[in-house]
Automatic annotation (TrEMBL), chains A, B:
It comes from the Bacteria. Residues 3-71 form the HTH gntR-type domain. Pfam families: GntR, UTRA. Gene3D superfamilies: Chorismate lyase-like, Winged helix-like DNA-binding domain superfamily/Winged helix DNA-binding domain. The gene is yurK. The lineage of its organism: Bacteria, Pseudomonadati, Bacteroidota, Cytophagia, Cytophagales. It comes from Emticicia aquatica. CDD domains: WHTH_GntR. InterPro entries: Bact_HTH_transcr_reg (IPR050679), Chorismate_lyase_/UTRA_dom_sf (IPR028978), Tscrpt_reg_HTH_GntR (IPR000524), UTRA (IPR011663), WH-like_DNA-bd_sf (IPR036388), WH_DNA-bd_sf (IPR036390). Keywords: DNA-binding, Transcription, Transcription regulation. This is HTH-type transcriptional regulator YurK.
Length: 236, 236
DNA sequence: AAGTGGTCTAGACCACAGT
DNA sequence: CTGTGGTCTAGACCACTTC
């Protein structure tokens, strides 16, 4: 039992939230109930709950209880804020078109170099995806995943079309945080075509490195965003 | 004694960090030392320390201790990542030119409307500032601050040129977090001139709402960034 | 009044860092 | 080895929300 108890509680609750056993907007069991369920004390349960607050899965209110966050966790960043209304972007909402991949590919793209420490000549699992909100293309994304410890990844389709959920359920890999560089650039021809904007229009470029629950295992994404109708918003 | 003990400990340590009593890169007293100093138990002290970690003031290592974060807290977001080297942007580094203000002004700019709930016809304290890194203009910023509870703000110069530090020291207002919307837009003439780029070049536009330790008191900024040489990077 | 989360105590054992 | 932070227990009292 090397994994701390509060981490186990945290993971268990997270799984029940993402799988829908605990519904959005609903209440979690009270701290005392969780204490008996996991045979732990309140301080331990509270540590787990506080981690879930920090990760954006739940909110808490004093005399009330722990509420499952609506629109699920935003991964610490990134949600799309709409013109007048709020549209939440996640692998579950909107549409995602896989334009290329998954396939094995070397990472020839030098823009990731500053983010990567060691790995160089390895093969990566590669995706090209286009994400739409309300049928408007808003994100064009290239994803690179180190081809380690992911047996049969390319052969099997993604669970519910979600990469993160696939990693969590099939490989017990939890994407926990990320760092990113943000720039404004002029869209090249391919990007402009896909995002249905004029070439050289300003687009947001996000260069991302995702940290996972597996030590040393990171995901990389290069994302081009059309922000004419939707802005990227972030918190904290 | 309505303020929780761990908040008092947190505030005390924060003050000693920002004022330089605990030096950057140095070690804080151990948890047990803090226990005796504040007459509290380890759980209480740890709660204060964990808050400081969350706010970016310190980092902690297992067998070692609590280290005061170098280059001070990054406010959860925003640091400028350079060409080859890392440059940290804060009110202490780089240069900041005040182009206009502080002055009283109504907020006529409608772009903030989505961020503001109630306030409408009030006067705001207004700034126009240009920030340079390595003598290159990289950020052009408009700041609006509600003119409540800030006696003599306009009359007195900023402490060490830092708005946040001034709010903290003179008014005990701590800027704790923010939300922002990020877009890529084409620079207008004024912005392009100030940032020394061509008109219609892609620039990053950040619309920010800062949350403070005072309930209901927020700061607002509209920022245009030249990301040709420096990218905005964010964490988590 | 009952149930909830917020704070706090006074211990304990462990794993990691530096000597 | 000592000292540090990481985890955990078994209680306690309080403030808030709901009924």
């Amino acid at each position: 039992m090397k994994i701390p108890l509060y981490r186990q509680i945290q993971a268990s609750l997270k799984e029940k939230i993402t799988s829908g056993i605990y519904e959005e907007g609903g209440l979690l069991p009270s701290e005392n109930d969780l204490c008996t369920e996991f045979n732990a004390t309140r301080m331990t349960v509270r540590q787990a709950l506080n981690e879930l607050v920090r990760e954006g899965y739940i909110t808490r209110q004093h005399g009330k209880g722990s509420t499952v966050s609506a629109s699920r966790k935003s991964l610490g960043l990134l949600s799309l804020k709409g013109w007048t209304e709020v549209v939440v972007a996640s692998d579950r909402h909107g549409k995602t078109l896989v334009l290329e991949g998954p396939m094995l590919k070397k990472m020839q793209n030098p823009i990731f170099r500053p983010l990567i420490d060691t790995e160089s000549d390895e093969d990566f699992i590669f995706f090209k995806r286009l994400r739409l909100v309300e049928d408007l293309p808003v994100m064009y994304e290239h994803t690179y995943i180190p081809n380690d410890n992911l047996p049969n990844f390319i052969e099997e389709p993604l669970l519910e079309g979600s990469l993160f959920r696939t990693l969590l359920i099939r490989y017990q890999i939890d994407v926990q945080s990320m760092t990113q560089e943000v720039r404004a650039i002029a869209a090249d021809k391919e990007t402009a075509n896909l995002l249905k904007i004029k070439t050289k229009s300003p687009v947001l470029h996000l260069l991302r490195k995702y940290k996972t629950s597996v030590e040393g295992f990171f995901l990389y994404s290069s994302i081009y965003c059309n922000t004419e109708k939707f802005a990227i918003s972030s918190f904290n």
